[in-house]
């Protein structure tokens, strides 16, 4: 069952990328169209994904405590992946100019579009709940540590803090406040966030498809070879580290299983959007996303099989 779901989710991604590639023939891809894509995803779709995940959480007596733990563990795992990627890139590509991109691609995964439905199938509604919270931790890492890392000036200044106060970050804060005080928004707001959240994956994949059609094949091959480092960290090293770390965390087995599964997701689909917004190499992000997702078609089932040694899934 899990193998079928992984295959279907990843094939959906590639079909949407193909649609984007076809759409690229119907309009000029310039700075204006690029800004429309980025603004729509960052300021509308991403915040709605965050709010939709939190609004659909059913709170019980000890649920918020577990949610808080999963949220912080998610951030910690993401930061470990980023650090491992940065360390390897700094040593392997000495003098290279992609260290920050490799670091982020090594630690941030596609925990929303692939991870949440996979956990729902394998672990049921409880798995989907904690997978959504893990995804919120990923979002928080992206729009705080990720933004800080991508800044041209590395000093923590007022401008750096202002960059981290963005729409997705504010959405996380608002959503968690609602959850903590058990506030349920009107049904029209819940439905609206659910509908707008569905925009994120398709529009991001369309953007990647359009972007790839503008890249020379020689550049794709060059970037593909450089992408092997972050892909190796994200799909192999980070899941192994997570499995070992979960032995020392006092959580229920279902929560541990969710965290482990989420740690093995392929590279973030929004990588090229994030890089474009902060003047990094968006082409590298797009190529890495596609290769990582393709390899994940084989790596996720293998990793799930191997971690049965430690945890029954």
TrEMBL record:
Belongs to the auxin efflux carrier (TC 2.A.69) family. It comes from Mesobacillus campisalis. It holds the Pfam family Mem_trans. One of its GO terms (biological process) is transmembrane transport. One of its GO terms (cellular component) is plasma membrane. This is Permease. It is found in: Cell membrane. Signal peptide: none annotated. The keyword Transmembrane applies. It is a multi-pass membrane protein. The chain crosses the membrane at residues 6-24, 36-57, 63-89, 101-123, 129-150, 170-190, 196-215, 227-247, 259-278, 290-311. It comes from the Bacteria.
């Amino acid at each position: 069952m899990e193998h079928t779901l992984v295959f279907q989710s990843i094939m959906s991604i590639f079909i949407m990328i193909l649609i984007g590639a076809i759409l690229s023939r119907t309009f000029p891809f310039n700075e204006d169209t690029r800004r429309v894509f980025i603004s729509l995803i960052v300021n509308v779709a991403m915040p709605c994904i965050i709010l939709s995940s939190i609004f659909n959480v059913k709170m019980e007596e000890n649920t918020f405590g577990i949610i808080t733990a999963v949220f912080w563990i998610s951030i910690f795992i993401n930061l470990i992946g980023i650090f491992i990627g940065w360390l390897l890139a700094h040593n392997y590509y000495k003098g290279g100019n992609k260290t920050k991109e490799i670091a982020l691609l090594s630690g941030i995964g596609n925990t929303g579009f692939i991870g949440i439905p996979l956990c729902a199938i394998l672990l049921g509604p409880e798995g989907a709940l904690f997978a959504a919270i893990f995804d919120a931790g990923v979002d928080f890492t992206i729009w705080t540590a990720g933004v800080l890392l991508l800044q041209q000036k590395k000093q923590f200044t007022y401008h750096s803090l202002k960059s981290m106060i963005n729409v997705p970050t504010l959405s996380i804060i608002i959503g968690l406040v609602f959850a903590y005080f058990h506030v349920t928004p009107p049904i029209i707001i819940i439905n609206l966030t659910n509908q707008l959240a569905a925009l994120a994956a398709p529009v991001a994949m369309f953007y990647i498809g359009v972007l790839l059609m503008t890249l020379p094949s020689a550049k794709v091959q060059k970037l593909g070879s450089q992408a092997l480092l972050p892909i190796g960290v994200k799909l192999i090293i980070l899941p192994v580290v997570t499995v070992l770390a979960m032995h020392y965390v006092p959580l229920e087995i279902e929560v541990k299983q969710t965290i482990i599964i989420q740690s093995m997701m392929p590279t973030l689909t929004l990588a090229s959007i994030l890089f474009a917004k902060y003047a990094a190499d968006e082409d590298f992000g797009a190529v890495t996303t596609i290769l990582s997702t393709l390899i994940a078609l084989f790596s996720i089932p293998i990793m799930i099989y191997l971690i049965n040694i430690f945890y029954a899934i």
